[in-house]
Fold this protein.
Amino acid sequence: MVASIQDSANPEQAPDAPLQPQAKPAPVALVTGASRGIGRAIALELGRFGATVVVNYSSSPDAAESVVAELTAAGGRAWSVRADVADEEQVEAMVKTVLERESRLDVLVNNAGITRDGLLMRMKTDDWRQVLDLNLTGVFLCTRAVSRSMLKARHGRIINITSVVALMGNPGQANYSAAKAGVIGLTRSTAAEFASRGITVNAVAPGFIDTDMTQELNQEPILAAIPLGRMGQPAEVAGAVRFLAFDPAAAYITGQVLQVDGGMVMR
């Protein structure tokens, strides 16, 4: 199911008006898991910088449409598409829809993810599999699905959202840490494969970010582990993604992991 908005039409140029240079088409960005939290912030940031944003969601259509509404109210273009990124057929259908509607796809942000925390000795196999399927296999499926059009265009930006727990580990998050570490390996391997076609692939590793996923955590030990002494904001992660997606200075950056963690990993 695809929800979309109508594009505003450009007024026709007067016959005697001087010829104007053709405007460069707006880049098209697909952000998975974009209905809330970090994904929402990324979608809004990319839209603010002129992208047509495709807001992917799995189970929150109203939240996704609120992101679309906020983007369009600010003068941007956006629409939403439902797909479970762990489902191969749904991912292929989603990317096909984007390409049919927009005729291009310039940026993929693999953000969708879940947690199923628990100590390893008590962790259910289903909790392990669900986290690996969505957080790692989902990145693979989405990247593979967009690769054909990006390789043909010889251009593209892929940004994968990993986590500092991929670098540090975290008790009670063996499944999440393993999945996010896998995302880093996938990022580097894909970057090496795609570099000759002008496609960059990078990862952003947030630390503790102030979202609904972290609000129930005990704040005191977390803040003590962060040299900057505070949690990050979703907009700070979104700014890092926007840099990798659009800044000309990022064109020579690929296969890297950018940590947005307040200095956690350096400890």
